[in-house]
């Protein structure tokens, strides 16, 4: 996941492409209007246009580079043995899935998605598998079309569950919490969950579960600015069930 911006765009696409396209278009329109001729409020319109373009630029940097760098760090920190079975919820075109598979020479990386292009440009199973082939990990990866609120896997099927900016796309709060519960259900006792999402959402997930650590992922994961930061919920599932806390990890924090 150390590709440059242009490679990342061709392989992994853009998150919520409609949002960044509309932000860029509005910013450009304001800037051009302010440059075209003098009028009352011209300075404010020019400032708005510049701000929107900066926001779009930061957004693109995050979706094409920043998030990949953050997930490299997070996956390295897991110190995987290499034989684990991993599930990536809402895998999209495979940025996290493929990064994990590179660390699982004797393991398996499974991705599930509904493949909505409004959530990620060019989002298809074929694109994900093509990216896995290009990365040399196709033999370790499988993908499924599945709703993450009703995962088609048995209890305790995975050593590790990951998710990157997916659960907030689910339209209702009860369904989002079902997805979090499903992530815990398919995790084996002692298994680990890494769930990255918009910070206020992550705090709600942690409060719902009553366990885990919430930590800010920093400016590299800002979608346009500090007003839309991303945090990580991390926990280890205890042997006695869903309510256990990973050894050494405190309760929810922000």
Automatic annotation (TrEMBL):
<dbReference type="InterPro" id="IPR029063">
    <property type="entry name" value="SAM-dependent_MTases_sf"/>
</dbReference>
<dbReference type="InterPro" id="IPR013216">
    <property type="entry name" value="Methyltransf_11"/>
</dbReference>
<keyword id="KW-0949">S-adenosyl-L-methionine</keyword>
<dbReference type="GO" id="GO:0008757">
    <property type="term" value="F:S-adenosylmethionine-dependent methyltransferase activity"/>
</dbReference>
<dbReference type="Pfam" id="PF08241">
    <property type="entry name" value="Methyltransf_11"/>
</dbReference>
<feature type="domain" description="Methyltransferase type 11">
    <location>
        <begin position="87"/>
        <end position="194"/>
    </location>
</feature>
<keyword id="KW-0489">Methyltransferase</keyword>
<dbReference type="GO" id="GO:0032259">
    <property type="term" value="P:methylation"/>
</dbReference>
<dbReference type="InterPro" id="IPR023576">
    <property type="entry name" value="UbiE/COQ5_MeTrFase_CS"/>
</dbReference>
<keyword id="KW-0808">Transferase</keyword>
<protein>
    <recommendedName>
        <fullName>Methyltransferase type 11 domain-containing protein</fullName>
    </recommendedName>
</protein>
